[in-house]
Amino acid sequence: MNEIGEALFKDINNKNLKIEKMTYNLETQKLFVNDSLYFCGVAKEVWEYKIGGYQVLDKYLKSHKGEEIDFEYFTKIIQTLSKSLKIEEEIAKIELS
Question: Which of 36, 53, 60, 71 makes the best surface tag, with the fewest CB within 10 Å?
Fold first, then answer.
């Protein structure tokens, strides 16, 4: 099983790192940044996570379109959002008296 947000190539002969066309597949939980490079294990809640009204992953990718992605950094963003959701769940369980 792959790590949350792990960067993989659909075609190992095409190791394109440029952010071109972003597509998210809910069923497979893959976030593609071009025809070959994708990030796996991106839950719907992580993809839709918003801060300040902006969808974090979408905003990042759109603002860096045409650039080569620092996939280690982007993986950390995905993992941080995933952990944030888990922490938010735990906080929501706390009963205030």
Answer: 53
Q: Which of 93, 86, 1, 4 is nearest to 40 (CA)?
A: 4
Q: What span, in angstroms and rounded, lies between the C-alpha atoms of 2 and 22?
A: 20
Q: Record the tokens describing residue 60, joined without a space.
A: 């990042």
Centroid of chain to Cα 22? 11
Residue 62 — φ and ψ, nearest 5°?
-65, -35
**Residue 39 in tokens:** 């990030």
Condensed to tens digits (0 to 9), the pLDDT of residues 37-57 reads 999 999 999 999 999 999 999
Q: Determine the residue type at 72.
A: E
- Across the strands, what pairs with 50? 55
